[in-house]
Amino acid sequence: MAAQLQHLGYEDEKLQRVMERLPCRDVQASMLLALMGEPEQCSYPSIFIYGHRATGKSHVIHTLLKELELPYATVSCVECVSVGLLFEQVLLSLFGSDSASLLSRSPSLSDFVRIYKQLSVQASAKQTRYIVLDRAELLRDMEANLLPAFLRLQELVEDNVTVILLSEIVWDKFRTNTGCFEPLLLHFPDYSKGELQQILSEDSHPSYSPELYSAFINILLGVFYSVCRDLRELRHLAALHFSKFVEPLEQGKVKEGDTHKLWRNIEPHLKKALQTVYLREVSSVQWEQQLQMEEKEAGAVRGLSAHAHVELPYYSKFLLIAAYLASYNPARTDKRFFLKHHGKIKKTNFLKKHEKTSNHLLGPKPFPLDRLLAIFYSVVDSRVAPTASVFCQISSLVTLQLLNQVGHDDQLDAPKYKCAVSLDFILTISRTVSFDMVKYLYDFL
Amino acid sequence: MMISMTVCWKWCGDERVFLCSMSILEVRFVGDGDALEHMVDKQQDVQGSSVQRLVTLRSEAERSGREDEAGLSELHYVQVLGTDEGEECVAAGGGASVFTFQTVKRSNRMAQMASELARTPTRSVTFRTTPDPSGPAQNGCNVSENRTPQKGRKVQFVSTTPHRLRKRLSAPSLRSDSDSELSPSDSGEEEEDDEDFKGKREEDRVNQSSTPSKPSATALYKTPAKKSKTAPEPPCQASLVEEYFEAHGTSKFLTSDRTLQRLHTPKLDRETLFRLLEGKPACYSSEIEKLHSSHHEHFNKWMLQLQLGYSVLLYGLGSKKALLEEFRVSLLCQEIHLVVNGFFPSISLKSILTALSAEILEHQGTFRNPADQLQYITTTLREQPDLHVYLLIHNIDGPMLRGGKTQNALGQLASLPNLHLVASIDHINAPLVWDQCKLSQFNWLWWECVCFQRYVEETSYENSLLVQQTGALALSSLTHVLRSLTANARGIFKLLVEFQLENKDNPSYTGLSFQDFYQRCREAFLVNSDLTLRTQLTEFRDHKLIRTRKGADGVEYLLVAVETSTLTDFLEKEVE
């Protein structure tokens, strides 16, 4: 298939080498090569490449530019917190180490264009220069003139330069109000299941046959393909689970050809890994060390999310409970829960139409400070003085992000809060102070 | 309503000098000119920014002289503290009660402590004070509604009952039947208790005495006199809570149609109001004076505590400005100190920091941001441990100093070993400003200083409905007005402010024409028709935010009637 690729400007061996390193991406690569043309030819000013995560955008571009030995600069826009850094990186990799010293301390776009012009006259290149901007969606958050300027940089600096933008976001979201020079759009489609199989099977284990590894990949994809098509994630999972897969072979229980037994052995483990490793509950190192080596049962280690227990002071617990009640109970029902002579009010009596859906589905509602304190005083079974300590604990709960302050414009007069903890969390806390939470919640009546 | 009620309820602790200060409130209005004059005469030689500052730099000779004294005076402080520690340590006790950490499980201990607090008349945290019925306290004060009719008044009446028993006694009346009994083990004996209770109530009716039903362990304590449903309850916390829920139970809120417009003179100007209020005699001036001078005894203690690394915080009813001023005059005159008026509507963190760095540390030049400036002040003060700076903040909870960033910066300053902070608070929710982290930085000692002085200067900057406003709007009232507007209206106003700031250097700038403004608002998706914009502008004009002027060509020009520096501060605050 690599033989299809032919291009006038480059040697055949180089092209051959490139194509070996780019499996399943030959259509895109040949398209790019066609766009780039021969090294001396003037290329298109800007190319915009988009595709999902892990579809080989950066990889294809980098391999092409590196193997064909073209002058290029790669900049990740995440790293560039200021435009000065971006300009510096471009100049450094295009014109050598002493070029960046020409830039002033906080350079503007016109500074960059001027210096670029100056340098390109001195070292006029015979080949097209390439500037690759990775994660280009972040350019939109920088200065407004930056993206339009990069799109027509060829015109501004009067040099044979092509800007390649890589992004996961479609071009429509990039367009500015005032319009700009439209780049060439290129789409990198997702890998299909067969392509994933082909790419993953390439990195086989040296001590086992490629067929065995291919069979393993087949099983892995069978479990994980429905939830994950990310090549990097799948590769990570494959590396993590292969040692478990070949365990029966090492013990001599199963022969290499007996795929069915191997499958029976690994399948429950993969299912378990779907719940733990893939959600990063248990780190990969933990998984390898504890579960594989010590033969422990997977799932015995408590993951990150199981540690949802926080030690709080006594009154803070009640404040949090009161905040939860205030957030998830409608204010009209307060009389029913916290008043002694509320009479016989049934749930159906004050059920309004929009409240038929559970309050827990709609999320927490904001409540004022005095309602929080009123509920607090009525749920605590002893007298509490409204001391500074109680108020400070409310603020501390906000700092700990167990409560949220809503609308930051009014800090003292009538502040509003929301409760930011889950039902499980508050149930645990109410159990420690032996408070029957469910009895007070409107949704569970 | 809730807040005002709690104010009285919280601060009406002192029984001996309890005064109704509400009805005799005298307000003096100080205009911008007066305020400026006031600042100038205090500033003496320092001019310029909006902080009222008072920096006295000691001369070298004085400094060395005082260092010799330092040892002596410190000894003196300790003596002072030692002698009157026992007799009157109300404030320290108050501080302790504010920060008591109660044990978790033994709730009766807590109840006891609460009732103990309630019985001591001088504490501020009381919620069951029994004031003198003959005193003037009852009228005009909201608390009087929920006060007991005082039959058989005993001080112990309140509750010295252990918590368990009290709970059981009040269980049928205080708790609804849907209310959960907290410990499940109790549920079995609950009914039995109930019957027990009924029997006892009968007994109570017969002899009106306070014999406990179980003579075993509870015999030591007196039970409350009676708890029948018809008798009004004492104003305890539970009833306050119930009142809150009763008041907020219905979604219907009745508003009165008796507006200010129905008065003959809907809006007085400052002079008229001043004339009307003039000549009102001040009641209880001698008692207030006595109370005021009693606080003077603590000055030496405060000074010692400041030296020991604490910050002093004053709270209580009445203006504490005069007290702090006397403290400054009597003890801080020879020291380097800075007075910050937190109630001043245009004060900002930047102006405080500039006063510190430029006047006290004598640093020339500018800083890029407040964080840099703070860094500079911190390092400079750490390098010179002999330089002691006193920071006096009237109203540290003032509207402009409430923000988290400002309090953080002040906390960092207060945590320096050679910067000493004295401050006062007035807002009922003031402790909400600080969380545990900030509290540890400030290291407060809470002193209760009930002064009953009028908030003359503090309230002079607030805009009241009764009074016509004069002059340009200050920053806090600007933000206050804008806060109540919609997001779009704020956007419209911000657009105008930004345009005015762009043209601040242009002396011939006459304002933005309406057509131009409409165009800009449309581009920003803020209005859909010029009618909407006109409505919005009318609202701005009502709040005196903008002025319109007809130009020579008959076109309307719009101007923001606020100073440029205030506008810049406003935009900075908006960005936060």
TrEMBL record, chain A:
Residues 213-280 form the ORC5 lid domain. Component of ORC, a complex composed of at least 6 subunits: ORC1, ORC2, ORC3, ORC4, ORC5 and ORC6. ORC is regulated in a cell-cycle dependent manner. It is sequentially assembled at the exit from anaphase of mitosis and disassembled as cells enter S phase. InterPro entries: AAA_16, ORC5, ORC5_C, ORC5_lid, P-loop_NTPase. This is Origin recognition complex subunit 5. GO terms for molecular function: ATP binding; DNA replication origin binding. It comes from the Eukaryota. The keyword Nucleus applies. It holds the Pfam family ORC5_C. Residues 312-441 form the Origin recognition complex subunit 5 C-terminal domain. It is found in: Nucleus. Residues 21-164 form the Orc1-like AAA ATPase domain. It comes from Oncorhynchus kisutch. Keywords: ATP-binding, DNA replication, Nucleotide-binding, Nucleus. The lineage of its organism: Eukaryota, Metazoa, Chordata, Craniata, Vertebrata. One of its GO terms (biological process) is DNA replication initiation. One of its GO terms (cellular component) is nuclear origin of replication recognition complex. Belongs to the ORC5 family. Component of the origin recognition complex (ORC) that binds origins of replication. DNA-binding is ATP-dependent. The specific DNA sequences that define origins of replication have not been identified yet. ORC is required to assemble the pre-replication complex necessary to initiate DNA replication.
Automatic annotation (TrEMBL), chain B:
GO terms for molecular function: DNA replication origin binding. Residues 197-206 have a biased composition (Basic and acidic residues). Pfam families: RecA-like_ORC2, WHD_ORC2. Residues 113-234 are annotated as: Disordered. Keywords: DNA replication, Nucleus. Residues 287-449 form the Origin recognition complex subunit 2 RecA-like domain. It is found in: Nucleus. Coiled coil: none annotated. Residues 121-149, 207-216 have a biased composition (Polar residues). The keyword Nucleus applies. Signal peptide: none annotated. GO terms for biological process: DNA replication. The keyword Nucleus applies. Residues 187-196 have a biased composition (Acidic residues). One of its GO terms (cellular component) is nuclear origin of replication recognition complex. Residues 505-564 form the Origin recognition complex subunit 2 winged-helix domain. Belongs to the ORC2 family. PANTHER family: ORIGIN RECOGNITION COMPLEX SUBUNIT 2. Component of the origin recognition complex (ORC) that binds origins of replication. DNA-binding is ATP-dependent. ORC is required to assemble the pre-replication complex necessary to initiate DNA replication. Component of the origin recognition complex (ORC). This is Origin recognition complex subunit 2. It comes from Oncorhynchus kisutch (Coho salmon). The gene is orc2.
